[in-house]
Amino acid sequence: MAYSEKLMDHYEHPRNVGTLDVKDDNVGTGMVGAPACGDVMRLQIKVNDEGVIEDAKFKTYGCGSAIASSSLVTEWVKGKTLDEAGQLTNAAIAEELALPPVKIHCSILAEDAIKAAINDYRNKQSKE
Ligand code: FES
Ligand code: FES
After folding, report:
1. What is the pTM for the complete model shown?
2. What residue stretches are annotated with the NIF system FeS cluster assembly NifU N-terminal domain (predicted)?
3. What domains can you pick out in the chain, each with its CATH number?
4. Which residue has the CA at smallest separation from atom 1 of ligand 1?
């Protein structure tokens, strides 16, 4: 199977690998697993007072397409508002990375992870 250059680039040089402090009220954490293959992805965002995502980190225990998808998402959401980031779709990820059909679920994992991170952040805010 031939993978796109963009996919290989994100796979070999993943952006924003790491961890943000889960106890920080400005940090939202999304942790999702893919039932199809058991891969797990954690994506975190740090949101500033204006509601803009100023930092994003991920850790993915999974296949190359899942790693590339999460790497791409962390790049995309930085500088975006929560509403903008929430509109990100797996189709856009799959298109950007030219994912083959069997790897579409890897991009769905990344969409689910960013949505979960946004929800977690919003839940934290509403508890304050
Ligand atoms: Fe093997 Fe995802 S199925 S790493
Ligand atoms: Fe399952 Fe990629 S996330 S194979």
Report:
1. 0.93
2. 2-127
3. 3-121 (3.90.1010.10)
4. 63
